[in-house]
UniProtKB/TrEMBL annotation:
GO molecular function, one term: N-acetyltransferase activity
Protein's UniProt keywords contain Acyltransferase: yes
Keywords: Acyltransferase, Transferase
Name assigned to this protein: Putative beta-lysine N-acetyltransferase
Length: 276
């Protein structure tokens, strides 16, 4: 059962047992400051252990006064101008504890050391292109094979088609006419930002640097669509994706502790961002 996306006042939230948290995705300033109490009430009612909020920088201090900590920031997030602040409130102190802090810090240092380095050339036989609706079945099968579980139903071809028609551009790397790797750009057209996400490479194609090449292919496609800031929320204990974004010139923006359910467990996530 995936978490629910719904309105709280005029703001958009996602919540449910899958991530065991509330995520304030889009804050309408008209809901301030009352929404902070409403989030507390919903978390208490459902027994969630974390509230996670992405808000424009000027609104952040009101959340900090109510027990939130700043976990990360992305400059130029809203329409290429206003900073986004990522905040966490840990209702259960156990959720804030992680034995992996040293490992996470070492991965960030390793990734930053690769910043802007040239990737290996794309191996012969691979091509890249934007995905189309006819790819949905094969794309869903790739995601099903790579991810045991995921915060959104990307295993479902109907979901992929629905999102393609609204706000998500999917991209594929192919070999011999079959999808070898995939990724997506989830666009917030109103605020001119996009999350570069859903990276998946089939096991037999690992080691070819396909994620880096897909990311480099996706960037101009996002620019064409008027996007000013790109970002990702990458698994903090996965060196590969952190290195991928750093290699492509992204800047580290913070760590979201025990934030997202992927492959059956709650994991910490790293922010990386780039503006044009």
């Amino acid at each position: 059962m995936h978490d629910t996306i719904e309105k709280l006042g005029n703001s958009q939230i996602q919540h449910g047992p899958d991530n065991n948290r509330i995520y304030l995705m889009k804050l309408d300033p008209a809901d301030m400051p009352g929404i902070i109490g409403q989030l507390n009430e919903l978390a208490a009612e459902k027994g969630y252990t974390k509230i996670f909020a992405k808000v424009p920088g000027p609104s952040a201090s009101a959340f900090v006064r109510e027990g939130y900590c700043r976990e990360g920031m992305i400059p130029h997030f809203y329409s290429g101008k206003t900073t986004a602040t990522f905040l966490g409130k840990f209702i259960d102190p156990m959720r804030e504890a992680t034995r992996q802090r040293n490992k996470i810090e070492n991965i960030i240092i390793l990734a930053q050391s690769k910043n802007g380095t040239q990737p290996k050339p794309l191996p012969e036989g691979y091509t890249m292109r934007p995905a189309v609706e006819a790819d949905a079945e094969e794309l869903a099968a790739v995601y099903k094979q790579v991810f045991e579980s995921y915060p959104f139903p990307i295993h479902d071809p109907d979901y992929l088609i629905k999102t393609m028609r609204s706000h998500v551009c999917y991209f594929v790397a192919e070999k011999d006419g079959k999808i070898a790797a995939a990724a997506s750009g989830e666009m917030d057209k109103e605020n001119r930002n996009a999350e570069m996400t859903d990276f998946a490479t089939l096991p037999e194609h690992l080691g070819n640097g396909l994620a880096v090449h897909l990311l480099k292919f996706m960037e101009p496609e996002m620019q064409k669509r008027g996007i000013a800031t790109l970002y990702t929320i990458a698994r903090a204990i996965s060196p590969g994706m952190n290195i991928t974004f750093s290699k492509c010139g992204y800047t580290f923006g913070g760590t979201l502790i025990n934030n997202t359910q992927i492959s059956g467990s709650i994991e910490s996530m790293n922010l990386w961002h780039k503006s044009f």
